[in-house]
Amino acid sequence: MTITISEQDWEAWEEERSHLIEYPDPDDRRDVLIPEPAWLAQGYTREIDLRDGLSVRIDDYQMRDRCEIAYSSASATLAVSAEQRALQQLDEQRS
After folding, report:
1. Would you kindly state where each structural domain of the chain is located, as residue ranges?
2. Which 3-state string (H, E, C) describes 36-51?
3. How far apart are CA 32 and CA 35, in angstroms?
4. Which of 31, 70, 73, 92 has the smallest count of CB within 10 Å of its CB?
5. What are the phi and psi torsion angles at 25 (to 5°)?
């Protein structure tokens, strides 16, 4: 079964779980860690604001099921992702 959610609903849901935010570096309020809910995934999302308009988001979790987010065409987010297995395969090929 695939969970499908709109970009707007996803953003609203993330805002609702803002009370779960942790700060890995207590002196830096721009570095936040948000645990994923157990019903959806195991792991966390970490966001680090580097400067205005530039941030890094690290999604380190394993989904319990497939999840699709329907992004609007107006979305201006560049997403780069890599799976650990793919990185391990590259390391093995280079050896």
Report:
1. 2-94
2. CCCCCEEEEEEEEEEE
3. 10
4. 73
5. -115, 100
d(CA 40, CA 17): 13
54 in Cβ contact with 37 (< 8 Å)? no
Phi-psi region of 53 (alpha: psi -120 to 50; beta: other; left: phi over 0): left
- Taking only the tens place, the pLDDT of each residue in 21-69 is 899 998 999 999 988 888 778 898 899 998 888 888 888 888 877 777 6
Q: Phi and psi dihedrals of 82, rounded to 5? A: -145, 140
The pTM for the full model equals 0.58
Q: What tokens appear for 76 in the block?
A: 């201006």
Predicted confidence band at 77 (pLDDT cuts at 50, 70, 90)? Answer: low
Residues 44 and 73: their CA atoms lie apart, in Å, by 27
Contact 21, 28 (CB under 8 A): no
